[in-house]
Amino acid sequence: MEHIIPLNDESVEKVFEEYEGKFKALADQKRLQILNLLCQQDSICVCDLSTLIDMPQSKLSYHLKILLDANLIIKETRGTWSYYQINNDEINQLLSPSLCCLFRPSCC
Fold first, then answer.
1. Which helix (H) or strand (E) holds 48?
2. What one-character DSSP code corresponds to residue 71?
3. pTM to 2 decimals?
């Protein structure tokens, strides 16, 4: 019989909290669109992403912060510009095979 960790264990609660944040970040159509665009390129400058998604940078920054906090994307600053890319390790752990096909069609 497997050892079951009690739900009141703080470490389990912390894991649940982390997944809750990740799934909340994914539960928005605009953020899914951002992730889809990021999956199509190695990295994208925030200025180009703003044009591609047709969203002001201020509103885009809000969505990018949520994705960053959930560890779903990675930010790199080059000079005055921020570049974003997918955090492949996190995405690969979260996506089911059917969802994976939406973001990684070459793998299906």
1. helix 46-53
2. T
3. 0.77
